Amino acid sequence: MEAYLDNSATTSITESVRDKVIKALYEDYGNPSSLHRLGVAAEAYIKEAALALAGSLKVEPREIVFTSGGTESNNLAIMGAAYANRRRGRHIISTAIEHPSVHEPLMHLKDNGFDISLAPVDGAGRLKKEELYNLIREETILVSIMYVNNEVGSVQDIAEISSRIKERYSDIIIHTDAVQAFGKYRIYPKRDGIDLLTLSGHKIHAPKGSGALYIADRVKVNPIMFGGGHQRGFRSGTENVPAIAGLGQAVKELYTDFEEKISRMYKLKLMMLNGLAGVDGVTANGLPGDYGARDGGYSMELVKKTAPHIISLTFDGVKSEVFLHALEDKGVYVSSGSACSSHHSEPSATLTAMGLSKEKMDSTLRISLSDRTTEKEIEYALEQISNLYPVLKRYTRK
Amino acid sequence: MFRAFLIKYAEIGLKGNNRYLFENALRDRVKDALKVLGAFSVSKEQGRIFVECPEGYDYEETVEALKCVFGISSICPVVVIDGTDWDSLEKGVGDYVEAMYPDRHFTFKVEAKRADKQYPLTSPDICAKMGACLLRRFPELKVDVHNPDVRITVEVRTRAYVYSVNIPGLGGMPVGTNGKAMLLLSGGIDSPVAGYMISKRGVSMEAVYFHAPPYTSERAKQKVIDLASQISRYAGPMKLFIVNFTDIQLYIYDKCPHEELTIIMRRYMMRIAERLAEKEGCLGLVTGESIGQVASQTMHSLAATNEVCTMPVYRPLIAFDKKDIVEIAERIKTFETSIQPYEDCCTIFVARHPVIRPDIRIIRKSEKKLADRIDEMVEEAIRTSEVIDIG
Predict the structure, then answer these.
(1) Nearest CB partner across the interface for A398, out of B250, B342, B351
(2) Fewest CB atoms within 10 Å of the CB: A30, A66, B71, B380?
(3) How many structural domains comprise chain B?
């Protein structure tokens, strides 16, 4: 038996996505910019994908720019918006729990004359909103907030935050890194006050190397890659047609039976959390409220305040890397909660911001589901985790 | 431009009656090194190895490969002149100098050798006449027969060969002339260097790695495989034994005092390595230990790990400083791989305060606590070890 529970790292691709990618890769290999019919055939995939994405977000197809994935979209959004709007001001606000592909561009901008403020989070990884609002000033041009945190699954209320900000400062650009949220929530940028939205293909059953940035018509963004002026100048470079075609296909399927898929993931998440709730030394991270299980476990109501697919668990006394490999041996694939595995790497920014100690961070695993995860997989994983934890806990460094 | 290489060898020249064995081994190692690069012809002749290159071979790649062969003192790229009549010779050598040395403000000397004793000119004649010809063609040149900047050697055989450049080789002895040893390979910086150094003395290698899943990852194992491949560029093909050490390690953890864990663990590693070595016909073990580097490498600790095997343990880095080891690791290109941050099984359970002056009698006593199951576990570890063919 195997249980792939590392869906926030990447997902498997579906059969229909595979077929679409192969067709675009092998049969319709033309350059979408070519004037002849092979070019037209290739371009058709891009149009189709743009329509699918635009439809799912309720935006215009021209507002979609295809990129190589989440990292590029975040770079384009942040660097592009910062440089295009620097005459209005040089202050940018973000949060302490962003993905490196948001944080690092911000640090680059900081080295280049921008002023960056990072809003703190509480122990459950939720933004301290009042502190965020207090950071806003006349020179603020951009606010970038992660929709769903990739490590603990905490969710920010982007719509509310955006409307509060725009009440006072309607010109501030709102960016959200929705890599972990797209497909898990119905996100409508125009309704939710989002000007720039990052999404990635390989988290939603599309190929790696696919992604997009939604850029609202009204927003000025400079390109960060220069060349032949593809995609209205936002992103030069021949479009990666097979990846884009695969992304389009995945998006078409993403919101079918949406409510059912989401409620099933929540059910599985709750099952996992409650399966371990009574175990001594195990804590779940990212759950608001009293952070702990009441007798009988967590309530669905509480769990629904977090993303349906990400579970962060700390297992006291066992290094996450060891636990991960022990589970791997049983066919259960998860990831270590802190950014990387070894004593050489940086501790996780998210877990640090949430106030976890170094020991806890080193003992944190992330279990992440997809709409393809089954109850059997969760049962099996639970069984393996429950069996291994006491054994591993016995052997620790003294 | 170069169509051949003349390979001069190091210490082999000092050997007596069995010298041919060393020469044959060197010839074979050169063949091995070039095999993958094309159809080179490698032959042994009069105190050197001669390599003729196939059409379209890659010069840099070939030199790189030869620079990994132990036993070579220098590599001379050779230009071949097809005719041996004087006109061809004069033109050939002149063209060689023109192509090799765009700036010809240097002193030189011509050295000649003649395998074809029927050749109308003697060696000193060739030297004198060629020197004069070169001076005529390139007036900037100056002759210095005692201490020239450049020695141009002309060899007349069925064809003529010209060379003047010596690319230094690695030295040492050809692998396969000095038996075989078992290298304890950990994934750190030191053990690959130790293997390289012993191999340099003509010793073939097999290697053993102690894997401790889930405490050490697939990537740590891959890292060791990569290191073994890197060493095998010098040491030739080797078998890499992957021993699953987890159960033994946990058993020691359960039964013995924690601060002695590392020492006792290492004693079992040595025992298992020795057993594998015997099985493979090795004559010694090789480790990367260096006195005082860590707690398990103090004189006391070394004595404690050493006493469990009867086979000689070679520790070529024993008196090296870390920075000197790193320097070699960088040169043999194992450093980059070694510093990849994957834990090896020696570090996972290491006590915060391990014993640094273990008393052998106490260690022996602690080991008695393992008597129940350890022999059977050692057998099991040896029996289930995975073998990977490297190189």
Answers:
(1) B351
(2) B380
(3) 2
Q: Is the pLDDT of residue A344 over 70?
A: no
Residue whose structure tokens are 């050598």? B93
Catalytic residue among A22, A340, A346, A357: A340
Question: Cβ contacts of residue B249 below 8 Å, gap of 6+?
Answer: B212, B215, B265, B345, B349
B284, B341: one domain: yes
Domain residue limits at A227: 15-254
**Which of the four pLDDT bands, split at 50, 70 and 90, describes residue A113?**
very high
A interface with B, Cβ–Cβ < 8 A, is 321-329, 341-345, 392, 395-398
Instruction: Determine whether the interchain pair B214/A325 forms a contact, defined as Cβ–Cβ distance below 8 Å.
Output: yes
* Cβ neighbours for B297, distance < 8 A, ≥ 6 positions apart: B289, B290, B291
Q: What CATH number is associated with residue B76?
A: 3.30.2130.30
Instruction: Identify whether the C-beta of residue B8 lies closer than 8 Å to the C-beta of residue B71.
Output: no
Whether the pTM exceeds 0.95: the reply is no
CATH number where B189 lies: 3.40.50.620
Q: What is the CATH number of the domain that holds A175?
A: 3.40.640.10
**Inter-chain contact B349–A324, Cβ cutoff 8 Å?**
no
Residue A282 φ then ψ, to 5°: -105, 130
Q: Which two tokens stand for residue A39?
A: 């070019």
Q: How far is CA A133 from CA A25, A130, A136, A148, in A?
A: 47, 5, 6, 19
User: Domain ends where: A254, A286, A311?
Assistant: A254
Reported as a pLDDT band with limits 50, 70 and 90, residue B349 is confident
B30, part of any domain: yes
Distance CA B126, CA B110 (A): 8
pLDDT at A140: 98
